[in-house]
Amino acid sequence: MDDKKKWDLISLASIPLVMTLGNSMLIPVLPIIEKKLGITSFEVSMIITLYSVAAILFIPIAGYLSDRYGRKKIIIPSLFIAGCGGLITAWAAWSLEEPYAVILIGRVLQGIGSSGAAPVVLPFVGDLFKSDKEVSAGLGLIETSNTIGKVLSPILGALLASFLWYLPFLSIPVFSLISIILVIFLVESPDKKEKPQTISAFLSCVKEIFQHEGKWLTATFTIGGIIMFVLFGVLFYLAGFLEEEFNIVGVKKGAIIAIPLVALSVASYVTGKRIGENKIVMKWCVVIGLFLLAGSTFLVSFTDRLWLILMILFLSGIGIGMALPSLDALITEGIKKEERGTITSLYSSTRFLGVAAGPPLYAVLMDQSNSMVFYISAGVSMLAMLLGIYVIKPDTKENV
Length: 400
Prior knowledge:
Layout lengths: L2 H22 L5 H8 L3 H29 L1 H25 L4 H16 L2 H11 L3 H30 L5 H20 L12 H48 L3 H25 L4 H22 L5 H28 L6 H29 L1 H21 L10
């Protein structure tokens, strides 16, 4: 990989980092927001969910536009919109007596901006490199950046909130601006000057792809959504559990939440470097990762000791870290370059669906029992593992 491509990749990696900070940073702060605004745990979960719902709706549109007009032309204005959303939420929290509704509006804008930023990075990496090995390594770095954002997010969010509870909102436009500058000056778009695809041709293309590849693509999309559902659900649970059961607050709480995310980040980086071009290896990394996730979340239900809970969840982080970059690589390398923007955008939508569903559903489960949280996590993870075993059957022929 030449130096120019490395800078392209580093700059692109800042985008999922920024988008992850913009969402995951709020996880440890949600109990504080709940108390400050005088709202329920379900209502506070909507701050995560509406962001994700907006992203779900607009990601396919962003993917189509990136295929039609170029990745960079979609990423930059999307980052700008995300930054504006962050400004609106911070302004509402600072100046309004009842800011909840306006905060939700700002979060929706953030979600719209996110839809054209992070999801477009995956096909962009596929465009930058010719060999599957370079694509896999590039995607591993992108997923690692994403997971590093998840590691830093709870610590940074808790730290900023210790000064002002709405400061995490205000940091979002700052991070977005940094990423905009990097993309403008350091990323050279590899898009070819081809005749733009019409809407009818686009829809026909999607139909044809799913006629030939629909079974394994649908399974892969579902697995990605389940992983994010469990991840964000468990993080939401931990944010409240640590405060209520152990009176752990502030940066200490953020650091504890980050422990399983450290495992996720390291496993993601190692997996991205190791899977190379072998799609069979990718499949079994997904399966093994889901086995670890299902087993660890099931075991957590049998203990109430914090150190043991975190040790077991550390294993779940390794499992997720093995699965996510492998799913990214299967999707990106299993689809032709001209169709990657469309398919990876749909995949990103299902991941955001998991993010959207996790916090509110886990809020309901938490009212039932702590054990129910982990029984459901283990059950859906096992379902995802079975999908990986029996439905994902990679075509080892090279896609160009």
